[in-house]
Specification:
Layout: E1 2-4, E2 15-17, H1 22-26, H2 33-43, H3 62-77, E3 80-86, E4 93-99, H4 100-105, E5 114-116, E6 119-122, E7 127-129, H5 134-139, H6 145-155, H7 163-176, E8 181-187, E9 194-200, H8 201-211, H9 213-227, H10 231-235, H11 239-259
Antiparallel strand pairs: 1-2, 3-4, 5-6, 6-7, 8-9
Helix pairs in contact: 9-11
Amino acid sequence: MRSIPLVHPPRPGPALLRPLCGADEQLVSAAGCLDAIILIDRLLVAAPWAGVAPGEAHLLTAADRDRLLAAIYREGFGETITATLPCSHCATPFDLDFRLADLVAAAEPVGQATEAHGWFTITPAGLRFRLPTGADELAVANLTPETAAAILLARCTDGPLAPTEAEQVQAAMAALAPTLEVDLDAVCPACSSANAVHFDLQTWLLTSLVQEGRQRLAEYHCLARSYRWALTEIAALTRRERRQLIALVDRDHDRHTAYA
């Protein structure tokens, strides 16, 4: 179980997460907010001192949700994020990698708004707002981006805003609760052209889990044949345990092959 500090939890305290297992991975079918909330709710552990309990992931801000997804990624995939991308100019594939810790460190909250009972005030303008939660995002999930942004802002403020006031509030929200979403500049080693790369941790993690579906089934099959375990038992293994056992099975197979 891991204790993850939160920036704007529903209650004071950290989030407690258990490790990811195969049954959790299997339930991820898309990369949206709903799948992220469902996954986090499955992994949250109840405790009197926890800032968020199982079933309350929808109360988290996107910033805190991302911090939990970062902990899940680190546990299952490690510290380094590596992607192979085609150059937008010459189409040659090239590798891009960076450390998750650097991304998290760059997303430290800042801002001058004062807070009381979950509502923030921008001084001296006196504009009041609260930070959007997953519940707010789900409420506008099926709308166009423009309509969703307008309704989301209306849900999180206490009155109509002029365009300049809306911009102030949105900037303050982004500063107080930055998400793990970043635009990166990458240089193609083949043609030296600059490539703009957008990275979103939620999409990256959930898409990775979806794309691993066939490999996961192959791992289940390997362990079922080797240990004669039921699929439910294999699915209950943590991701790390499953990969360690696969490595042992592969090692024994290699030894057997070498002496055959």
